[in-house]
Amino acid sequence: KMKKNATVEQAVEAVDICKRNGLKVQAFMVIGLPWETEEPLEETYQFLLKIDPDIFDLNLATPLPGTELHEIAVREDLFEEDYDPARAGYATGSIRTLSGLDSAFLVKWRRERLLKLSLRPRYITRTLVNAGGLRNTLNYAKAGFKRFRQLAFAR
């Protein structure tokens, strides 16, 4: 539905090739698209666990004016009542899905999965070991604690 012209298997293979050749892998996923249910959300989370990227984020779908996503959100009346385009963003949510997943659910789901991904011992160890020196390691640790506080204690 996103017209990516690539399969999950192709993405996994591409990540494997990158890792075998010493490249860092970044994965920035969009969730909360109008047609999503909890099942594809979980598939996205499992995909991230499988590819084990070096850097990752889960971004909430944000329908920008002039895009097909915006047209769908308007046509299907998916905007939340308190939607404010000036405050919309990748972490705040602005639409609900056709299956009834609202922004509050999506924001909470995103936060919980990012915490789980970020707190994996293997991820923490790899990030700190590959930081490239004591100063960078300390900066990564500081950024990690800040991210943890943002995710764990967000309202």
Your description of this structure?
By secondary structure, this protein is mostly helical. The protein has six helices and two strands. It is globular.
Report a brief summary of the structure.
This protein is mainly alpha-helical. The chain has helices at residues 8-20, 38-51, 68-75, 103-118, 121-129, 134-152; strands at 26-31, 55-60.
Secondary structure elements and pairings:
Layout (H helix, E strand, L loop, with lengths): L7 H13 L5 E6 L6 H14 L3 E6 L7 H8 L27 H16 L2 H9 L4 H19 L3
Parallel strand pairs: 1-2
Helix pairs in contact: 4-6
DSSP strand content: 5-15%
SSE-based structural type: mainly alpha
Q: Helix proportion of residues, in percent?
A: 40-55%
Report mean pLDDT, rounded to a whole number. 92
Using brief descriptors, characterize the structure shown.
6 helices; two-stranded parallel sheet; 155 residues; mainly alpha
